[in-house]
Design brief:
The chain is α+β, with helices and mostly antiparallel strands and 372 residues long. It folds into three domains: 193 residues, Sandwich (Jelly Rolls), CATH 2.60.120; 73 residues, no CATH class; 27 residues, no CATH class. Helix content is 21%, strand content 33%. A five-stranded antiparallel sheet has the order 1-5-11-7-8, covered by helices on one side. Strands 4, 6, 9, 10 and 12 form a five-stranded antiparallel sheet that branches. It comes from Amphimedon queenslandica.
């Protein structure tokens, strides 16, 4: 009997834990996007343009069917620096932890944090997710707590869940850009939190007191804009087909590909190489200067490298269909050639033209043609 009671007791604990660990009644859920927007608006001025963080509690009141967060008591809280000093190689390490993560404890409920990293303009930032444990609802899989990540080249992305399936892929950000990680914590099912590493690494290509650094930073920023929200690293080289009729314009290091009014590509590059066998001769490479203002009309293949763009003009695509006006012109030319061929054949039955030209006309040597 004793063992049966123990078994039932343990079973009830397991069942109880399974139900409550990640269950949050709809009446207790906080709109995390709303929480993030209100909290950021209230606290972001405390961060300035440097690497700082701020974590505060908030209260929530029911307004209609929604819980509205209030940060009135957090206005006196000051932001703190959290990145370490420069290492011997000039790099800087920043560790972003949820509250009490280093103590092995769960973060408190109704908690909000903004972590902001701004590496020097002469450095490159590398961002990596080390650990993640933020709850999802058992009933519908909705995030009950989340982190939101934005940067100069990364559109806002929301993450929750476990490290294996919730962590983001590592990515890089140019120096001088704001990397902001916002934690929005609700009031149900607190977990272990998160740890994110950010490393600022000096770049040897920067010189002249940051003059070159700013130029390279702008180029890198726009080159990896194509990643989109996932923030995955750009792989080089990669090929892009430029459709027939598209116009490539290269001006002040910006290469734009447009088809009518639609912009297909925008790439920042300090070097553009163009091969057009018809315009420049077989195998000849034309290199446009970064300050140039050049335009080319596709069809071709563009190969994008990390330090240049190579465009090979292919001429008219083999499957290109002529327009109605072009087809009419082609038909008229064919019809004219058939008439000329017919006249030539009927004329040949009466006599062959002379070697210098047709009868009665001046040939290329100045002599009149003779009948055979």
């Amino acid at each position: 009997m004793f063992y049966l009671i123990v078994f039932l007791f343990i079973g009830s604990l397991i069942a109880f834990d399974g139900v409550t660990t990640c269950y949050c009644p709809p009446s207790n859920r906080i709109n995390l996007q709303l929480l993030k927007n209100i909290g950021t608006a209230e606290l972001q001025d405390k961060l300035g343009d440097s690497s700082k963080q701020i974590c505060v509690p908030y209260s929530a009141t029911h307004t209609g069917f929604n819980l509205i967060p209030d940060f009135g008591k957090a206005k006196s809280v000051k932001a703190k620096t959290f990145c370490g000093p420069k290492n011997s190689d000039g790099s800087i390490d920043c560790t972003i932890d949820s509250t009490d993560f280093s103590l092995g404890k769960c973060y408190p409920e109704k908690h909000f944090c903004i972590h902001q990293v701004v590496c020097p303009v002469t450095h490159m930032a590398s961002i990596q997710c080390s650990s993640l444990d933020l709850p999802k609802s058992d009933s519908d899989g909705e995030c009950l707590d989340s982190i939101f990540i934005t940067s100069g080249i990364l559109r806002e992305k929301q993450y929750c869940g476990k490290t294996d399936d919730g962590c983001f892929s590592p990515f890089q950000e140019a120096g001088g850009s704001k990397i902001r990680i916002v934690f929005a914590g609700g009031q149900c099912c607190q977990k272990c939190g998160y740890r994110i590493w950010v490393k600022c690494t000096p770049q040897s290509c920067y010189a002249n007191n940051g003059k070159i650094a700013r130029t390279e930073r702008d180029i890198k920023k726009h080159e990896i804009e194509e990643r989109g929200a996932a923030g995955l690293p750009t792989r080089y080289p990669r090929k892009v087909i430029v459709p027939a009729g598209a116009v490539l314009t290269y001006k002040n290091r910006l290469l734009t590909v447009k088809l009518t009014k639609a912009t297909l590509q925008k790439i920042w590059t300090s070097k553009l190489q163009v091969r057009d066998d018809i315009a420049f001769g077989p195998g000849v490479l034309f290199e446009a200067k970064r300050s140039a203002n050049r335009s080319f009309v596709g069809y071709g293949v563009m190969t994008i490298y990390y330090n240049k763009v190579y465009y090979h003009q292919q001429g008219i695509p083999p499957n290109e269909i002529p327009t109605a006006l072009e087809q009419e012109f082609i038909n008229n030319v064919v019809k004219y050639l058939k008439i000329e061929e017919k006249n030539s054949n009927s004329f040949d039955t009466k006599g062959n033209p002379g070697p210098e030209g047709p009868p009665g006309q001046i040939g290329p040597t100045g002599q009149r043609g003779r009948r055979g």
